[in-house]
Amino acid sequence: MGVFVRISIRRPKRMIKKSLVHDVDTLPQDRKAMLNRLKRVEGQLRGIQRMIIEGEQCQPILVQLSAARRAMQQACVEVVKGYMKRCIAEGSTAPEEEMEKLVRALVDMAPPPSEETP
Prior knowledge:
This protein is mainly α. It has a domain at 29-109: Methane Monooxygenase Hydroxylase, Chain G, domain 1 (Up-down Bundle). Helices cover 65% and strands 0% of the residues. It has four helices and no strands. Helix 2 runs antiparallel to helix 3.
């Protein structure tokens, strides 16, 4: 006959995940708006996953993918606008290296040029 022993393991406090709900409540309005924007994109992506699982036709999936891509691009634009507003509000001039990083990020987020077929 085996003996069942219950062992209680406690995690050290530093390992316990902190809830972000409180942190979100205390965020400035612009950050809350960005999180809401990203949550909508997350919902779009989950919907697209569901469409694929359910075997939806190609065209509606592509429409939703395009909408999600545009929403992500708009989120990128909002991040850049916030950065630029902060720089102007602080009256600081960003170092050249920082501006180079920003330009590279803008180029990376730009949609690829559309190819027109003759």
